[in-house]
Amino acid sequence: GHVREATVGEGDKAIAVARSFQPEWDRLRGARRAGILERAADLVEANTAEFMALAAREAGKTPHDTVAEIRETVDFLRYYALQARQRFELPTRLPGPTGETNELILHGKGVFACISPWNFPLAIFVGQIAAALAAGNSVLAKPARQTPLTGYHAVCLLHQAGVPADVLHFLPGSGAAIGAQILPDRRLSGVA
User: Fold this and answer.
1) Which of 48, 84, 137, 191 could form a disulfide with 108 if both were Cys (CB 3.0 to 4.6 A apart)?
2) Using CB atoms within 10 A of its CB, is residue 32 exposed (0-12), middle (13-18) or buried (19+)?
3) How many Cα atoms within 13 Å fall on the side-chain side of residue 63?
4) For the segment 70-111, what is each residue's pLDDT rounded down to a tens digit?
């Protein structure tokens, strides 16, 4: 495969678009986001052969290590789907020591940059993204420079599962170039 690295203009546009669509994604509530993450888990399992080939070519992974990483990826997606249902669907009723009603309502914070290492190009990459998405955040996904095709395939499956393209942005490139551009940006709410 071939990769074209993201430009400074594309990174800036991705932050702006992700920021403008994050409130809409957050309003979906936890159960709908969970359903999307569960569909993504099913798609990862259905694409095991493609991920095995990509992990072998890009990261030099053995078949045994790749199968373990795919299982971990699916576990991350299902775990964060459960967390979305349990923590982001309905308010949590808190004790009211003086008879008042207290509720805890969790929401996304904004735009998160998810930057992954080359040695776990699928599991860590998708785990970071799934956690941010489950909580109602939009994501700028920057795969390791050595494994961009694995990251691209994962992002395509997340989009296919129902994550809007305006919520999840793929930014391949060097850590120095992409990081230097997006990390100091005040519109960013967090980094994984």
Assistant:
1) 137
2) middle
3) 1
4) 999 999 999 999 999 999 999 889 998 898 999 999 999 999
DSSP 8-class letter at 5: P
Q: Please, are residues 131 and 192 in contact by the beta-carbon 8 Å criterion?
A: yes
Alpha helices in the chain (DSSP H): 8-27, 29-46, 48-59, 63-88, 123-134, 148-161, 175-182
The residue among 147, 148, 149, 114 whose CA lies nearest residue 133 is 114
Task: Read off the pTM.
Answer: 0.94
As a whole number of angstroms, the distance between CA 59 and CA 153 comes to 14
Which two tokens mark 34? 């969970």
Cα 153 to the center of its chain, rounded Å: 13
Amino acid sitting at position 12: D
Residue 114's H or E segment, with its range, is strand 111-115
Q: For 56-111, what is the HEC assignment?
A: HHHHCCCHHHHHHHHHHHHHHHHHHHHHHHHHHCCCEEECCCCCCCEEECCCCCCE
pLDDT in tens, 145-188: 999 999 999 999 999 999 999 999 999 998 888 888 888 999 99
